[in-house]
Amino acid sequence: MGLRALLDLPAPAKLNLFLHVVGRRADGYHLLQSVFVLIDWVDALHLERRDDGRLQRHDLGLALPADDLCLRAARALQRASGSALGADISIDKRVPWGAGLGGGSSDAATTLLGLNRLWGLAWPRERLLTLAATLGADVPFFVGGRNAVVEGVGERLTPIELPRAWYAVVKPASPLSTAAVFSSRLVGRSVEADIVTGSFADAIAPGAVADEWVCKLMSGHGRNDLQAAAEDRCDEVAQAAAWLHARCGNSRMTGSGSAVFARVGTGDQPEAAFPTEALPPGWEGRMCRSLTRHPLADWAG
To answer: Domains along the chain?
Structure first.
């Protein structure tokens, strides 16, 4: 009869160690250069097979939009594969939304990887990646399963090896819309300085440990080109960045959301405990450790 359920499937968040806006396509989509790193702040998904073909989502915590990215991913896979099976998709939402941490995209990727196994499809990773690219710019990264240089509109992935590191991550109360940030007049104003021409992936040897290169980008040579636009729309982004910088000596916004992070060590333990008691009301924060691979990386060939 095959599998009936897959429980406690992790959907990890990500950080953009830097994010450079390097151009814009004729269709309006911005071209990016970034390094994405997986972290251990995760949502949990439970998938139960349905034989009637119906797809239903159940919220175990925070209520999600009625037609979220997980349901869209499940419908896309069902349609592309021709499967007559359905699923109940239950989500324990822990990664804050509107944060730039990729939580919704990660949930969609875990849905694709999980249903690929639950429905017995055995699709290879490349086929799942093609489908993932139709769902959102960050979804292919999570299906790819590795920390990566990310270019284009998010579809060009070059896996890299990064030593595990600790990051203090803070999400202020206000969320941010990706569309609103990218539409800002401030996006790309600082694009000229410190951009590596051509592909970032060409700047490192394939499979090389890129920590020294990433540290250089973290220490002033890299940046988030969307941060000024985000701060223009949301004072709390600037407040969170200043709050974290005062305590950790560095800070940067991740992605196009309102969360900021600071690198706080590379050893077995972070260099300092997270000052949870000092967080302003409504803010979320935690100490996160990077992952070397997605927990479900081996679920696609």
So the answer is: 5-160 (3.30.230.10), 166-289 (3.30.70.890)
